[in-house]
Write a structure and sequence with these properties.
The strands form 3 sheets. Strands 1-2 form a two-stranded antiparallel sheet. The longest helix has 21 residues, at 148-168. With 274 residues, the protein is mostly helical. It has helices spanning 16-28, 49-61, 86-92, 95-105, 120-136, 148-168, 179-183, 189-209, 249-259, 270-273; strands at 40-42, 45-47, 215-219, 222-227, 233-234, 237-238.
Length: 274
């Protein structure tokens, strides 16, 4: 959209850390009991936080070198305060956790576990969430709109959209379920909308301000430029975008300073801050 006063392009980009925490929360809410509000299903596999807990307990009880050394019981026994900590969510949705699932699956302890016999889709859930956070935390500048990191973000979005299409489409094996019940087999609409808005918004933002790379074509064995890239320099300054800055960390830090302006106070007011 355009700003009503300046007529400049305005982009709405959701905060990636909040999306990651919501993805962890959706996994935590997934299960088969009456206390679970979701039952994430993908290609016949149930994605549940309890599976991660079982793998962690196996890893924690082992007497050798642990696979996921940063994981503790606090990661799976959440409180309202710890649920707000990004580090705990990132360490659960991590490559280390994915490696732990693989090691647990190949162990003797995995036999007899009620996890549908495989954890491949759950590993993909972890890896895609982890890659999205890694890209959004990257401090290396983007100088071109067709940077491979943008393409990776689009691939991650496609994975979740394929899952959504699977749940709501004809391929879903539980066809007797209502639309509302089918939606429980996928992440919440709110999380999916936030992720879609973030990735598409970043893509549009980069396309608006950054040039594309020059493409090479080969003719008679000679590589030549077929399309000259638009110069990223304007008014003597080179344009670039740092994805790690596209978050609300500055606002969160400001709120934290206000919150503790008069000591440890969870309910600051204007008089106390003044």
């Amino acid at each position: 959209m355009r700003h009503p006063m300046t007529d400049k392009a305005v982009f709405f980009i959701q905060d990636c850390p909040h999306i990651v925490k919501k993805l962890r929360n959706n996994l935590e809410k997934s299960g088969e009991t009456e206390f679970h509000t979701r039952r994430l299903l993908k290609h016949g596999e149930s994605l549940q936080s309890s599976t991660l807990r079982k793998a962690h307990e196996w890893d924690y009880a082992s007497h050798g070198l642990r696979v996921a050394q940063r994981l503790t019981h606090q990661h799976f026994n959440m409180t309202p305060f710890s649920r707000m900590r990004l580090s705990l969510a990132a360490q659960v949705l991590s490559k280390s956790m994915a490696r732990l699932l693989e090691a647990w699956k190949d162990s003797d302890a995995f036999e007899g576990q009620e996890v549908n016999g495989y954890v491949s889709e759950l590993r993909q859930y972890l890896l895609h969430s982890n890659e999205m956070l890694d890209i959004m935390n990257d401090c290396s500048p983007l100088s071109y709109s067709d940077d491979e990191r943008i393409n990776h973000l689009l691939d991650i979005l496609c994975w979740f959209e394929d899952w959504e299409e699977y749940v709501l489409g004809d391929r879903f094996p539980h066809r007797n379920l209502t639309v509302a019940e089918k939606k429980r087999a996928f992440i919440s609409d709110n999380v999916m909308a936030d992720m879609r808005q973030m990735i598409i918004g970043i893509k549009a933002f980069c396309e608006c301000y950054l040039p594309k790379r020059a493409k090479l074509s080969e003719t008679n064995g000679l590589s030549t430029l077929t399309a000259k890239a638009t110069s990223p320099e304007e008014n003597g300054s080179k344009k670039f975008i740092v994805l790690s800055k596209l978050n609300q960390d500055i606002v969160e830090e400001h709120f934290a300073k206000l919150r503790y302006a008069c000591g440890s106070n969870s309910h600051p007011d204007a008089a106390g801050i003044a």
